Amino acid sequence: MNAPPSRSCARSCGAESTWSLYQRPGERWKASRVSSRQGQPNTSGEEATEERAKSLGRSVRYLHFACHGLLDERLPLNSALALTIPERPVEGQDNGLLQAWEIFEQMRIDADLVTLSACDTALGKEMGGEGLVGLVRAFQYAGARSVLASLWGVADESTAELMRRFYGHLKAGKAKDEALQAAQIEVMRTPGLSHPFHWGAFEIIGDWR
Question: For the whole prediction, is pTM greater than 0.90?
Fold first, then answer.
C-alpha cells in the first residue's frame, strides 16, 4: 500500500443545468475534464467570484466547487470556500471567502448535488441540538438535496481522478452513492493511488439517490 502524502503537502496542492466554479490552479484541468463529460458551464480564475456563486439561483441542478477549503473549528460558521480574492477589498463588500454563514443567509438554490472539492469540507463543529454545523449544513439549508464533501485534506491529482470517474458514473445513470463507490474502487486500483488517503476522503451527505 502506498504511503499517503503529508497533510501539509495535500493542503498546498486543492440538457441538465450544471455549474462549475474552480479557483485552484492545479484543478483547472480537472474541471475541464469533468465539464467535457457533463457539458456544464465553467467559471474559473478571476471570474470564480463570491458574487457569482451567490447569484447562481435555483436553476442549477449540479454545482461543483473546486477551490481551497478553510475550516474554522472554533467558529464553524466562518468556515469558507476560497474563491477569487479582490485586488482591492472594500470593507462591507465580498472578500472572496464564501463563508458558511453567508451561504445560510444569502444563497438559495435548488440543487440535486453540490460538490465541495476542497479540503475538510465535510467537517464542522457539534453545536448542541443543531448537530454538525459547517459548509455541508449551510448548503443543505440553502437548498442542496445532497452534498459531496471531504473528511480531510485532499490532493489535486487523486481528487481529479476521483471526480472524473464519479461524474462519468453519474452521467451513466448510477445513483450518487453507487457512482461514488465505483469511482473510489477504480481509483483504489490505480497504481500509486491505492492508499485510502487518495480515494476515501469524500462522502455523500443527504439524498444518496
Answer: no
Here the cell at position 177 is 452513492
For the record, the C-alpha cell of 148 comes out as 459531496
* Residue 5 binned pLDDT confidence (cut-offs 50, 70, 90): very low
Q: Which residues 6+ apart lie within 8 Å of 135 measured at CB?
A: 69, 79, 80, 81, 100, 103, 116, 121, 122, 124, 147, 149
Kindly report, residue by residue over 149-162, the tens digit of the pLDDT.
Answer: 999 999 999 999 99
pLDDT per residue as tens digits for the range 73-83: 999 999 999 99
Query: Is residue 187 a contact partner of residue 193, using CB atoms and an 8 Å limit?
Result: yes
Between the alpha carbon of residue 50 and those of residues 23, 85, 89, the distances in Å are: 11, 9, 12
Q: Judge residue 111's burial from the number of C-beta atoms within 10 Å of its C-beta, 0-12 exposed, 13-18 middle, 19 or more buried.
A: buried
SS3 146: strand
From the DSSP assignment, how many helices (H) and strands (E) are in the chain? Answer: 8, 11
